[in-house]
Amino acid sequence: MIRTRFAPSPTGPLHIGTIRTALFPFLFSQKNKGDFILRIEDTDKERSKKEWEEELLKGLDWLGIKWNEGPFRQSERNELYKKQLEKLIEDGHAYYCFCSKEEVEAQKEHLMALGEAPVYRGKCRDLPKETVNKYLKEGKPSVIRFRTPVNQVVSFDDIIRSKIDNNTDTMGDFVIAKDFDNFLFNFTCAVDDMLMEISHVIRGEDHIPNTPKQILIINALGGKEPKYAHLPLILGTDKKKMSKRTGKTSLNEYIAEGYLPEAVLNFIAFLGWNPGTPKEIYTMEELINDFSLEKIQKSAAIFNIDKLDWINGLYIRKMPLMELTEKCLPYLPQKPIEELSKIVALYHERLKKLSEITELTDYFFKDKLEYDKELLRWKDMSDEELKSSLEKTYDAIDNNEDIMELANKEDNRGNILWPLRVALTGKKNSAGPLDIINVLGKEKTLKRIKEAIELIK
Ligand code: GLU
Predict the structure, then answer these.
(1) What is the predicted pLDDT for the residue at 66?
(2) Is the CB of 226 under 6 A from ligand 1?
(3) Contacts from 130-134 at CB under 8 Å and sequence distance 24+?
(4) Is residue 197 a contact partner of residue 39, using CB atoms and an 8 Å limit?
(5) 297: helix, strand or coil
(6) Is 173's C-beta closer than 6 angstroms to any atom of ligand 1?
(7) Residue 242 alpha carbon to ligand 1 centre in Å
(8) 3-69+187-233 has which fold?
């Protein structure tokens, strides 16, 4: 039975890259008719917040990533962790450490001076039971450490990265709990993966150094070790870690800009995964069908926003006009939807994200346009030519004549069409003038041409 999980820490906005750590285990479990478990890792009491958890759940819902079990919260599982911790201590796999911070630091510095890994090397490892009890009774501050075996190799066969070996001497006796109410990440994560019978741990490669520690804990508890698949890093196009400075990182920002969930999913799926065929557009169902861990690459994935825009534009083009208009409503002034849909139609083909509709179409909703009169000029027209062009156009429209016929009489149609289009929009780029006239109506069109003529005088 395949059982995977997504185990986010609710310590900040849902990062766009984090979605992949939800999507891949989700796809893998659904492809194999297994279960996908949502586990909220909120043991860090200071940094974990309910609002981040809510944002997380909303984000998954928006994307259509559904879990079969959960959400479980680690903050609600203390009793389970307590039991496992007691067991580790009883079996001698964990022990109380009473060393002060200063003592631990001094030991580490000493090891570094010897050129060795700065790990805790167990001054308290073999304290007699009576001493431990005495210290505990006195209330001497303590932590609980894992008794890491000395000079052993812990290996695991990572599905993506192949065999990874670790010598236990690089880990030392790491802390697994501050006390019986405060457990640390490697411990709770390992215990939960064991108790939840996770078959495949699929997560970011930043967790590779944690894996041998978690394996040691699971082994000490007599649990079954899951298989591991560590996903490659996601870098920006500058090959550096994605950061706030170089772009949007939180899913909410993408939602606000008007990216569609189907497009985001499709885009994220290709961050480090490739089906090995030219097919690039995938529905969730198709992703589930075609997904495989073996097709995940080792090298870093590049987050290319242009590709996301391209995919998003494609999904927008496939969408029926009325549906698109509805989705554009938050970005447009309040008007009857039929009226808006005519405006949206002009940009259906070129829209990349919904939020762009505001700026692209603002000229429809303004009483008077503000623009530089130089924009009206086509090539090297003189003021007189420009004025005459607009006057001819005005008359033609006023008399319900065909504008294209008028334009075709010129050596260059731009002489008529360019000044007209700028008069109607105040923009360098826009939809074509005839489409715009259709939507604006004769009266507004004539008013705008008149205003343009007045600018030239
Ligand atoms: N809670 C960890 C994190 O957000 C993930 C743990 C895991 O996937 O094993 O980085």
Answers:
(1) 98
(2) no
(3) 132/95, 132/96
(4) no
(5) coil
(6) no
(7) 18
(8) Rossmann fold (3.40.50)
CATH, domain 373-456, list 3.40.50.300, 1.10.10.350, 1.10.260.40, 2.60.40.1530: 1.10.10.350
State the Cα–Cα distance between residues 202 and 195, nearest whole angstrom. 17
DSSP 172: -
Q: Give 228's strand partners.
A: 201
Could you tell me the pTM of the whole model? 0.93
**Model confidence pLDDT, tens digit, residues 154-208:** 999 999 999 999 999 999 999 999 999 999 999 999 999 999 999 999 999 999 9
Same fold, 80-177 and 373-456: no
Integer Cα distance of 142 and 133 in angstroms: 12
Distance 180 CA to ligand 1 centre (A): 21
**Ligand 1 pocket member 261 (CB < 6 A):** no
For residue 26, give Cα distances in angstroms to 35, 37, 272, 398.
Answer: 8, 9, 16, 61
Ligand 1 pocket check for 8: Cβ under 6 Å? yes
Question: Using CA atoms, how far apart are residues 291 and 277, in angstroms rounded to an integer?
Answer: 12
**Unique residue bearing structure tokens 């001094």:** 106
For the domain made up of 80-177, the CATH class stated in words is alpha beta
What atom in ligand 1 is closest to the CA of residue 41? Answer: 1
Per-domain residue ranges of the chain: 3-69+187-233, 80-177, 324-365, 373-456
Residue 213 Cα, ligand 1 centroid: separation in angstroms? 14
